[in-house]
Amino acid sequence: MTDSLSVARHLAGRLGKVADDFAISTESYEQAQVKFSNSRVSTTQRWISRSIGVFAAIGRRTLATSIEPSVSAADRCVEKLVAFSRAVGENNQYMGIAKGPFRYGGFAEFDKGMNDVDMADVVAGAIGAASEVGVKRCSGVFETCVGDRHLLTSSGVDALDKYTRAYFSLRAMADSEGSGHGVSASRGMRGLGYVRAAREAAEVAVASRNPSPVDEGVYDVFFEHLPAANLMDVVSGAASVFYVESGLSFFGGKVGKRVASSSLSMADEPVLYSGVGSRRFDDEGSPSRKANIISRGVLKSYLHNASTAARYGVSSTASAGIVSPRPSNVVVQPGKSGKDSIIRGIKKGLVVTNVWYTRFSNYSTGDFSTIPRDGVFLVENGKIKKAVRGIRISDNLLRMLSNVSSVSSDLRQVMGWELERPISVPQVLVKGVRVTKSVE
Amino acid sequence: MELDSDLAEFAVDYSMKLGARFADARLERGVYNSFLLKNGVAQVSSFEEVSGIGVRVLVRSTLGFAATNVLGRQGVREAVKSAVRDAGRCSGLRNGVRLSKCRAVRSRYEVRERKPLADVGPEDKLGALVDVERSVVAANAGVVARFFSLSDNVDEKLYVNSEGSSVHSRVPRVNFYYYMTLSRKGLSMQRYWQHGKAAGFEALDEFKLPEVLSGEAVALRQNMEKGVKVSSGKLDVVVGPEITGIIVHESGGHPYEADRILGREAAQAGESFIGSGSLGYTLGSEAVSIVDDPSLPNSFGFYLFDDEGVKAQRKYLMRRGVISGFLHSRESSAVMGMPVNGASRAKGYDREPIPRMSNTFIEPGDLSEEELLEGVKKGVYIRNFTEWNIDDRRVNQKYVGADAYVISNGRLGQPVKSPVLEITTHALYRSIDAVADNVEYHAGSCGKGEPMQALPVWFGGPSLRIRGVVLK
Questions:
Q1: B122-138 and A71-87 helices cross at what angle (nearest 10)?
Q2: B213 and B239 part of one domain
Q3: Mutate which of A80, A121, A324, A357 to disrupt the B interface (most B C-beta within 10 Å)?
Q4: Where does the pLDDT of residue B177 fall: very low under 50, low under 70, confident under 90, or very high at 90 and above?
Q5: Cα dihedral angle (B424, B430, B436, B442), rounded to 10 degrees?
Q6: What is the β-pairing status of strands A376-380 and A298-299?
Q7: Residues A59, A122 within the same domain
Q8: B364 CA to chain A: closest CA distance, Å?
Q9: Which residues does chain A have within 8 Å of residue B39's beta carbon, measured at their own beta carbons?
Q10: Interface predicted TM-score of the whole assembly (ipTM), two decimals
Q11: Which pLDDT value is given to residue A1?
Q12: Chain segment B296-355, per-residue pLDDT in tens
């Protein structure tokens, strides 16, 4: 097989003669998964991939493609890019890619033993830990991935990045509608904590058996890590200037303004050594750096690549996506209180352990709803009273951000089935959340 | 260029040689183009050709799957070895997987394109988006943000298995989706929708996008500026085919996926309120019959053989209100002891096949939509919607109307602002007293599996009349 990087260099040589800008990313990875349900293995899965992704700007026509790693494919690709550039309209908003070359920091955590993990042993251990708590059955996935990425650009970038990650997800099902979901994610196996995730899922499942109906109304809602991650993932994505311009963000026109309570701070931190989404450089080669999104409730900046930053007269936040800037390793700053002390302060509230199906009526206003799944618990006068079921959070996300009253000190790195990216979150208490339910 | 059948056969043969009891392989090549227009400005235009092979093996009653885009015997050998090895290592936790018996098939089919996608240049594809942009702007409806995406692809697939099946298919698809954000005087509305067919570029003519989107924009502006909230209390609701479609997809299709019923999807898209013993249970009114049919010509969810080489068929999930069938893979049908019915689909070569919907719809009745409305003294007509969701057992669902009107003595009146239908599946299906004859099919991308598999589907049906429900 032809070496991908050699093909990329050949392609760079050809593109250098016809394109104003280009970025060529070679990526190879091997990802393995054990999927289990009813406490047995449903299937094993493995993906072996080699690819070359190409961005090119020719006369302000912005084009993208991918090719298999062969010289002939690279040559065909150049011809087709030129033909496309003659056929499509100008992107008059395009202002060029990041001007390198750059100096980069070191690699983030890389677990050399990731390919040798006994995946069956991990799954069996997790199911065993959950079963000890008293659940009937467990479902989920355990996944490992090892990969590398090499970027070449027309602005002198020639740089390598490499990564490993592990992801564990377990949903525990107890008798009588009780269920709980635990997840964990890390760059190396040592930080994974899958047994804790399994045990906590099982504890929620057992505690949430025989749930009762609960009234619609306004509640203070304590979001555990997984639902907090789901909501904060949406919030961080809304900071992309691409989404703002598309009408798909509630942050339009709000840079420098208060968008959340002062309890909330959020940043994209792709430079953290153990961040699952950490990377040495973004998709156009800008060296990764911390980008503050919300600081003490104030929206500090949209997420930019070099082109959008030039158009707005600001600095790139090193968040390319060349088409659409995006965060890659989001961290919500933890607070000082523990879960128990936060819950003690709730008069009438709910503990939500998972949400799914978050959908917006209108992204630009933030009107949305999301559905709690797995254990939901009623809190009265600082005490968890009972498990409840059948509710929906129907509110406005900006309003909820402004009503964040506490964030816990317990920061955890989360990936999930509906999450766009890894995110580190504490638990979050939001006051006065509107809760609805279906007519039966 | 033909797909390399020798390579696919080699994958299966090599799997059997390494000890698999059963093996299948899907060798696929997809040619993709996509175009994006944001607020009138061409963003990125892209094209690519993606090829790869996915191999599934049954080893010691455990399924193993491996996919690679490193094509050639060495790459396939590595993938097969890893699938057999991984499954074997997990056999201590084996599920006792069996696959229902199937007759070996050899077939070849394709969807013909009247305007072949390969013959239409990027200027015409991007030009179609520019036409939509001009039309929406000309409607002067205050659409301040416009996001239009057009993509097309031709998927060629060769399925082979160790039982002698071989199915070659070639299916082109066209897919358009959009967001429009209206804003005026502090008011705002947003519209998202999708149009898709298995066809050549002639699909664009049939979508009539400039007329449809500008018409929607005008209606939404009227709603935004003149809409009223309906008073609470029970009333009758008539929903148009678009909402029928999303209802039937979410609560009339997903709960009937056998892998959900068996718990195989519990940690992902969830389970179902339906149990394996629910066949014959009366859930809805006699007016409701639900069909899933992959063979609808040019449908977005079209196929003639599923991704296990099983012949596609029209399936009743509900017949006159009674639960009457499930969507099966070979694995789920073997577990439940039911006939396999060709509902196992994979998004691409790099995903495992699992039970999925294709084109799911409520069968039409004899009444016109006008006749449905004539039967309503006080109610609301909802043509389309924005936000929706449903819980993971498919009971607790919500649809927020967008273009909606008061019904008074059978006639449409003032626009209604954001009517919310938030209702359980049981209450909803038993309250449908009449269905119209105006069937429409709408396109969507259905999500399930891990990693996520977003698959093209149609959903639809006619307008429905829902008696005595509460709108919020």
A1: 40
A2: no
A3: A357
A4: very high
A5: 30
A6: unpaired
A7: yes
A8: 26
A9: 245-246
A10: 0.97
A11: 43
A12: 999 999 999 999 999 999 999 999 999 999 999 999 999 999 999 999 999 999 999 999
